Amino acid sequence: MKEIQYEIIREIAVLSESGSGYTKEINFISWNENEPKYDIRSFSPNREKCGKGITLTADEAAALLKALQKEVKSGD
């Protein structure tokens, strides 16, 4: 099985941290030397391991942002 490679182009934010040190992050990442995408997933301390996550194109990230802004605004 081919090893998965990634390069974090830009760190955006740590969304949360567990008691074991794992962090849920959003970053701009290039996977296997492909075009970078927005990426939300958990990482172990020192980013030695990563969990399952989701990648989003710029258009998908914009749609998610719009939907969350609407949800948070109406959720009050």
Number of strands: 4
- Total number of helices: 1
Q: What fold name goes in the CATH topology slot?
A: Transcriptional Co-activator pc4, Chain A
Using only C-alpha atoms, the radius of gyration works out to 14 Å
Order of helices and strands: EEEEH
Low-confidence stretches: none
Question: Distance between termini?
Answer: 48 Å
CATH architecture: Roll
% residues in beta strands: over 45%
How would you characterize the overall build of this protein?
There is one protein chain. With 76 residues, the chain is of the alpha+beta class. 22% of the residues lie in helices and 46% in strands. It contains one helix and four strands; from the N terminus they run ββββα. The chain has one helix spanning 58-74; strands at residues 6-17, 23-31, 37-43, 50-56. A four-stranded antiparallel β-sheet has the order 1-2-3-4. β1 and β2 form a beta hairpin. It starts with 5 loop residues before the first strand and ends with a helix.
Q: Which features does this protein show?
A:
single chain, 76 residues, alpha+beta, four-stranded antiparallel beta sheet, 22% helix
Layout of helices and strands, plus pairs?
Elements: E1 6-17, E2 23-31, E3 37-43, E4 50-56, H1 58-74
Antiparallel strand pairs: 1-2, 2-3, 3-4
Brief overview:
With 76 residues, this protein is of the alpha+beta class. The protein has a single domain (6-74), classed as Transcriptional Co-activator pc4, Chain A (Roll).
